[in-house]
Amino acid sequence: MDMGGMSSSPSASCKISMLWNWYTVDACFLANSWHVRSRGMFAGSVIGVFFLVIAIEAVRRAGREYDRRLVQAAMALQGGGVISTGKADTPPGEMGRVMSSQQIMRFTPSWPQQILRGLVYGSQFTAAFLVMLLGMYYNGYILFAIFIGQTVGYIVFGRDTCGGAELDCSGSCC
């Protein structure tokens, strides 16, 4: 059996574990090309994962802001009426009350707007999926970078999701 991969040379094999671990040097993530060969590379990987998770929250916020901008532009074109998202779960009494005081209209994004919304969503989903795969290496440093990064990202970019009962803060225009 060839044990050449057991040395600490640049061609050392990757340490991969599906159990909780604290591997630093010779850890590998996602592909052989992400083979951590020094403590500096590992620190860069942990910091990069931390900022990747924060970036996911930033993209989520950008998507919500874009949706709000689309709805506000549609409201301005229609003279300030209430935009209906077409949700079937609105109680009949509530719908009647809204209809009696304001005009209700339905908003559907144009195809270019929907394509941009899809690209924002797709980039968010792809990055989140990669973060999930990174978490499956069960490396404690990477997991804590994910947990802390998500928390920091939400603190920084999630302030727009809090509102009263009359405010629609879902960020979804459709």
From TrEMBL:
Where is this gene product found? Answer: Membrane
Question: This chain belongs to which protein, by name?
Answer: Copper transport protein
- What are the UniProt keywords, alphabetically? Copper, Copper transport, Ion transport, Membrane, Transmembrane, Transmembrane helix, Transport
Q: Give the membrane topology, semicolon-separated if more than one.
A: Multi-pass membrane protein
Give the UniProt family note: Belongs to the copper transporter (Ctr) (TC 1.A.56) family. SLC31A subfamily.
What are the recorded GO MF terms, alphabetically? Answer: copper ion transmembrane transporter activity
- Residue stretches spanning the membrane: 40-59
What is the scientific name of the source organism? Answer: Saitozyma podzolica
Q: Which domain of life is it from?
A: Eukaryota
Taxonomic path: Eukaryota, Fungi, Dikarya, Basidiomycota, Agaricomycotina
Q: What is its main location?
A: membrane
Pfam families (alphabetical): Ctr (PF04145)
Coiled-coil stretches, from where to where? none
The answer on whether this UniProt entry bears the keyword Transmembrane helix reads yes
What cellular component GO annotations does this protein have? membrane
InterPro entries registered for this protein in UniProt = Cop_transporter (IPR007274)
